[in-house]
Amino acid sequence: MADIFDVVADSTRRDILAVLLERERGVPQSGGEISVSDIVTALGASQPTVSKHLKVLRESGLVAVREEGQHRYYKLDRGPLETLEDWLIPFLSSDAAADAAALAGVESNGEIALNDDQRAFASAIGKAFADTAHQVTAVVAPKRRRLIGD
């Protein structure tokens, strides 16, 4: 089985996971299930490409599949995402921020004192995050609307 970080590193697989999440939230009566053809339509990708990525997601345990005749219905399985969550939590928790403040020193107004290199690095990360968030929203929002009929 591939490392979970390698699995979610691929943008097409992240897009598929986003479609599955939107299906789960937007159409609760579906039980979160969506057909391969609906995923293909939502992403505007070819069926072989989507199937290839669904196989990787299935093998990593991130999706579950139900077969009905020749049709396959996929849904999100959050279990393996706990590995990602466990890794991220220390970076996101308030304790991590307090630890960083203790290591970096804190200014009198409570803000962490950063040197020029740290400030430049933080700025670059913030810009990269904002650009990525914008790109994901620009791609996913129209497909989400088509998928759930908004």
From TrEMBL:
Under Gene Ontology molecular function, one entry of this record is: DNA-binding transcription factor activity
Swiss-Prot/TrEMBL keywords: DNA-binding, Transcription, Transcription regulation
Q: List, alphabetically, the InterPro entries matched.
A: ArsR-like_HTH (IPR011991), HTH_ArsR_DNA-bd_dom (IPR001845), HTH_MetalResp_TranReg (IPR051081), WH-like_DNA-bd_sf (IPR036388), WH_DNA-bd_sf (IPR036390)
HTH arsR-type domain span:
1-96
Name under which the protein is recorded: ArsR family transcriptional regulator
